[in-house]
Amino acid sequence: MDALQLARLIREWAPDAAPKVALVLGSGLGDVARAVEGAEAIPYLDLPGFPRSGVSGHAGELMLGRIAGCEVVVLSGRAHMYEHGNPREMAVPIATLAALGVETLILTNAAGSLRESVGPGSAMLITDHIALGPNPLIGVEGDERFVSMVDAYDPALRDVARQAAAAVGIDLAEGVYMWFTGPSFETPAEIRMARVLGADAVGMSTVPEVILARHAGLRVLGLSLITNLGAGMTGRALSHAETKHEAARGGGRMGALLVEILGRITEATS
Ligand code: HPA
Asked: What is the pTM for the complete model shown?
C-alpha cells in the first residue's frame, strides 16, 4: 500500500481528522499517548508497510486526537535501523503523515549525554545532527533527494520549544545529536570521538526520520530525553534496562514540555 492509500485507510477510522502536527514518541514517553483526547488508535499491524516494532519500551500504534487543543497524530513506537539494517524503516509512516496533511513532525528520543552538566533526566533540544549510519534516501530517485540539511531542525519551532520550556520551568539544554546505529552501545573511545566531533548527545534513532521528513517537506522539531552519560563517562556499564528506567522517570517532565509546545503551536497557527 502506498502512502496515499494508507492516508485514505486512516481517514476511514477518523473521517474528520485533519492533523497538521505529528509526534513520534521515543522510549519512556509512552505515557504522553494518554494525554490524547478523543483518541482513535490504529495498531501498526493494521497499516501495511508500518513497522512491526519489537523493541521493549515501544508500543506500535498510530493515534489520532487532540493534545492541548492541538490536533495530532501520535506515532507510539518507531522502528530503528538496528532492527533489520534498513535506514528506511520509517519511510512509510513519514510519507503517510505527509499524505495526511501533516506539516510539522516532532521527534522524541532517549539519548546519552556527552556533557557532565546535562545528566540523566535532562531534556535537550536538538539543534543539528551528525549521521554515522547510511542515508535513508539512498536509492530514492529525483532531484528532491538532494535535500538541504541546513536548519533541518526548524529554527522557529526551536524557539517555540525554548519558550515552552521556560513556561513550564524546565531547563532545556541544546545540542548536536549524533546517530550511532546500535544496537550495541558506543565504546568509551567512540564517545570521546563524538565529543571531539562536536556532538552533545548520542542515540540510535531520529536522524533517518529527520532526513526522510525533510525530504517529505515536513518541518521538524527534535527533543532528547537524556537517560545516561555516554559510555566511559561514569565508569559503569550502560544497559537498556537503565535507559528504560531513566526514560520512564524523566518522561513526565518531557510530556509536560510536549503538551506546552503543542498548545503553543496551536495558538500560533489558529
Ligand atoms: N547511546 C546510544 N543510545 C542511547 C543511549 C546511549 O548512551 N542512551 C539512550 N539511548
From this structure: 0.95
